[in-house]
Amino acid sequence: MLTIASEVEVLARFGRALADPIRCRILLALREAPAHPADLAESLGISRTRLSNHLACLRDCGLVVAVPVGRRTRYELADPRLGHALDDLRSAVVAVAADATCPDAAGKGCC
Questions:
Q1: CATH number at residue 52
Q2: Which keywords accompany this UniProt record (predicted)?
Q3: Which domain holds residue 38?
Q4: Which residues of 59-68 are buried (b: 16+ CB within 10 A; e: fewer)?
Q5: Do the Cβ atoms of 89 and 82 come closer than 8 Å?
Q6: C-alpha 107: how far from chain center
Q7: d(C-alpha 105, C-alpha 49), whole Å
């Protein structure tokens, strides 16, 4: 069972992963189906190097796993519940005002 402090850390880690649009796109793509990096890079229109960096971040956050398939590696969500969480977040987005900003300490919008 997670303590409140560890629950907060896990939520913050999930938030950091979602803070980057490319990582969001990767998670949404993997929500649809597991994929090989070359296919992901092509479908997202980004370089394999850039994708690799983002996949490493998502692995470090515990959100995706690399599954060896022969000589290739396939990526998938670490847990099917993450797909459900992403669905819930996508549904909740409509409740957030599109013109709202979230100022950070430097006075810039963080959202």
A1: 1.10.10.10
A2: Cadmium, DNA-binding, Metal-binding, Transcription, Transcription regulation
A3: 13-82
A4: eebebbbeee
A5: no
A6: 26
A7: 32
